[in-house]
Amino acid sequence: MLVELTMHTTPSHPSADSPIDGIRILALLPEQWRKDLSQANGEIIIRVDTQDDTTGEQVEETITAVLDDPAISHWSLRACQTLSPSPPEPPAQDPPGSPGQEPPGQFQPPTG
């Protein structure tokens, strides 16, 4: 699941620490997730690829819990946008020796 998270500061807190805060937020997200941090107009934007069947709702729950940390609690989630669903399962392959499949190392030219 590929998700883009957009966070902004609460009105009572300046965004001067946003690069450091962005790194703090990344560190608190699950280690197995692939993450990409960027900033735009004083907001923190993180793209997350969970690489599994985690839902967008679960990603949102996770980031909401992360933002409860006192060091970054002045940030709030503005958007959690799903960019793509989890990749489809690869098609099952026929085991060697199945009808229509040549045994390894043997090739039969097409007739015709």
UniProtKB/TrEMBL annotation:
Entry superkingdom: Bacteria
Positions of region (Disordered): 76-112
Biased composition (Pro residues): 85-102
Feature: compositional bias, Low complexity: 103-112
Protein name: Uncharacterized protein
